[in-house]
Each structure stands twice: as structure tokens, then as C-alpha cells.
Amino acid sequence: ASIRVFVRDRAQGRCEYCHKPDEFVYISYHVDHIIAIRHEGSDEPHNLAWSCATCNISKGTNVATYDRVTNLLVPFYNLRTQKWDDHFEIQNNLILGKTPIGRATTDFFNMNTPEQIFIRQFLIGSGNW
Fold first, then answer.
1. Distances (CA, A) of 74 to 19, 26, 51, 90, 122
2. Pair 115, 90: CB distance under 8 Å
């Protein structure tokens, strides 16, 4: 429980992948392994992320996928070594990938499903994003 509180507090209550705040969502957030245990990741705090259910379930134990533009295999966004704004931007309630890593992560994590866009639109419009 203390690790969960630490990870949530460090993330300021936001999914560290899509940035959705947890206080307005009814599904519990997850403590995610950035690099899964099966890929030699650890349970150390630097490898743990606060993740909404959509991002965590979509990611699973995967660490990479193919970018739809370059067709190259690229790693997912690593929130401990990279800056969110370097890889993503929000336009018209959509999270858009600015780089191959951003595009691959956005697509694979299902960040722009109709439900995610609706939630994001509501939260941005109400000043809660």
C-alpha cells in the first residue's frame, strides 16, 4: 500500500502515460511496471508508474511496437528517461504522437478511443485536465 501511495503521489494523481487525472475516473488506477518483470524490469520505484486502466491493460508486458509511419520497431515512451512534451501534444482533445515513439505509444495504448476522447474533452472543458 505504501508503494502505491508513493507512486500515485509522485505522479500527482495522473496517468503517467496519457496524463488523465485519477480523481475523476471511477476505475482504479494501476501501479505499472514500465519495463515488465518478464523483460528484466524490477519492482524498484524508478520502474513503477501510475497508470490508468486503459493504458496499463493496452500496454500489458509489451515494451515496443511498430510505428505506423516509419514501419520501424520503436520502444514505448519511457516516462523516467524522456519528456512527455517531446513525444506528445494535445490537439482538439486528441493525444497526438510527435515522434515515432509518441505515435507508437499513442496507438498501442489506445489513447484516442471515443471513450478516452469524451473523458478528455469533458475534463479539459471543465478545467480539470
1. 21, 32, 20, 21, 32
2. no
Q: Whose CA is closest to 68, among 18, 110, 112, 104?
A: 104
The answer to whether 39 and 18 have CB atoms below 8 angstroms apart is no
- Residue range 31-84, pLDDT digits in tens: 999 999 999 999 999 999 999 999 999 999 999 999 999 999 999 999 999 999
Alpha-carbon distance of 80 to 28, in angstroms, equals: 22
d(CA 75, CA 77): 7
The DSSP bridge partners found for residue 33 are: 48
Alpha carbon 117 to its chain centroid, in Å, reads 14
Q: What is the pTM of this model?
A: 0.93
